[in-house]
Amino acid sequence: GLVLIASHGQSGLSAWHVSSVVQKVIVRASVSLLIVRANQAVQTDIADFRYRRVLAPLDSSARAECVLPLAAALTRVPDTQVLLAHVVQRPQMPRRTPPSREDSELADRLVERNFNEAEQYLAVVQSQLPPSAIETRLLVGDHVAGSLHALVAQEQIDLVLLSAHGYSGQMERPYGGLVASFVAYGSSPLLIFQDAPDEQAVRMQNRSAAAERTNGRW
């Protein structure tokens, strides 16, 4: 039900955040994964080891919320704080000419509306979890992944909980774009919940295997 793997092994640390072997395991695995960063030495007795600052990004989707039961369980561990985070993304306007005043005002109204909705959403989720060890962070940014990476550094997060897929619900690949960003560029341990049904996860695994054969890797 869970694969626990270090980001690097016998080949040693590299400029990449995960090794090539781990990349292959991640793509082919059809279950949940815990990736431990090999460059972070445990400074305490393993019997006393715990994650103290845990981040659970939410995007208002039921898929992203599959991490909440574990987040709630972690709050029962002494000295463990869980942060629920949501990023309101500014509308993208890919064009050669600068946006007009009307465009900017429309974007601002959309951000304000989404911010208010997200504020209410986080309040509801927080009310359903143990209150003493749950905090929320509501951010506005141009890029969701970039905002969350910055939050990890700012809050000194030592474990990130993510669903394999989120709001878009695109199940063609084993993981969505946010998970891929944290695998490739994240520096903290990462627990990925595979939210795809078993049969769908197997189909994704078979497609990955077929792609490897097509690309001549086998």
Observed structural traits:
218 residues; alpha/beta; 7-stranded mixed sheet
Quick summary:
The protein is built from six helices and seven strands, in the order βαββαβαβαβαβα.
How much beta, percentage-wise? 15-25%
Low-confidence stretches: none
| Total helical segments | 6
Radius of gyration in whole Å, from Cα?
19 Å
- DSSP E strands, number: 7
Structural class by helix and strand composition: alpha/beta
User: What form results from the Cα inertia axes?
Assistant: globular
Q: Share of helix among residues? A: 25-40%
Largest sheet: 7 strands, mixed
Strand order, main sheet: write it out.
1-2-7-6-3-4-5
Order of helices and strands: EHEEHEHEHEHEH
Mean pLDDT: 83
Oligomer: single chain
Report the end-to-end length measured between terminal Cα atoms: 27 Å
What does this entry look like structurally?
Strand 4 (81-89), helix 3 and strand 5 (134-141) form a beta-alpha-beta unit. The protein has a seven-stranded mixed β-sheet, with helices on both faces. The protein is built from six helices and seven strands. It is α/β, with parallel strands linked by helices and 218 residues long. The chain is globular and about 55 Å long.
